[in-house]
Amino acid sequence: CAPACLLHVCAGGAAAAAAAAGEQHDDTAAAAPQASDELGSLLVLTSKHKLKSFAFSPAGGAKGSLGQLALGLSNNSVEVVDVREGSYESGSRLELQGHRSDVRCLALSSDDTQLLSGSNAGCKLWDPMTGSCLGSIDTGYALCCVFAPGNRHALVGTKEGAIQLVDVGACTVLHSEQAHAGAVWSLALLPDKSGFVSGSADKTIRFWTWTVTTVQQQDAAVAADAAAAAAAAGKKSKDGKKGQEDEATPAAAAGGVVVQQLGFNQTRVLEMADDVLCVRVSPDGRLLAASLLDATIKVYYVDSLKFFLSLYGHKLPVLTMDISSDSTLLVTGSADKNIKVWGLDFGDCHKSTFAHQDTITAVAFVRDTHYAFSVSKDRTLKYWDLDRFEMLLEMPGHHAEVWALALSSYGDFVITGSHDRSLRRWERSSEPFFVEEEKERRLESLFEADLEQQQQRAQREAGGLVL
Hints:
With 467 residues, this protein is an alpha+beta fold. Helices cover 18% and strands 44% of the residues. The strands form eight sheets. The protein has a four-stranded antiparallel beta sheet with strand order 1-2-3-4, with no helix packed on it.
């Protein structure tokens, strides 16, 4: 295009000089050259996604092609196209298996062999050991997810208020129930594996039980056999064997496979005074904790739904919480950047800690311990000892807000999901670490950051004085 631009500029300059000299051409006025005078449209390429960038190579490609185009698309993929005379064809595609939007929820199976992640475009199933994507599931805007007992099914709560039952092996949605009138913010399994609990923005907590229904599905092989039997019966009827036709017709009509399908039914509803942001059931199955939009935590007895405790202290709503394996401690993380540890016997606050520099989005206890992990919008993952009430490790790594956290059954690895569309796996190493050394390292980094800020401030002030 450069020669055309140069030609345009030169032609425009000559026309201006001629006008200045007073030359007039009444019949044929000299028009400025256009790009269409030198360039002609060969073909138009279309794509399902927005085009962010491209690169053209006139050499290479298949035989008979005029060149190749590399297209950078908005869905984080690169497509290489072979351009021909009047047509084009896609040569190859480079794309990542991950999410195209921020990861909002994570769930690990009980045996730690499968990972389910959800975003506003649906859910994806992963192998947490290899990091390979096993499949994608179209569920809508997923806000929370959990594996059902047996790890063959999973539950997904959506922004539209639906709870969807997913077949993990087939990566399909078996059943979708419009359970709530608002967004489903939290799902929690009952310890006896009889059902689960859901909390929603419609100010209700609903209890659900598992059901098994018998469904008759038409199998392709069985249908073919039934059609063949019907054809054979028709042939025999022409030969006068009407009795055999009558016997074959019911068999053809009954062609199908009887399968048992998992489902769920609602049993109880607990009305709340405000939006429910998180629900948790204690491992002993005795207590139900629910965090509300008014920054309080309400605790009820599971069997009778009788009120037990009301926990006050957070200045902003509690977005996440978890109960220890011995059902004695409740840890809460809030938008006020604090982590609080509560005793579930009397509802007293054992400790309140300024934990992160931004909103805390997820906390989880390590099984059979009082160690816990927390993630926040400040892009960090932190490891806590909640008996001593001190931070053990701080692990930065994400490039945007961390929304979700999934902890393995034995606490040997943690998976985090972020707004930067990535999943990160953090493994427990065999290297020993010392808490005092970690504290000194954090203090040194804070001191260096503060010193750098002071130097930048001094440079700005000096520059202002000069100006």
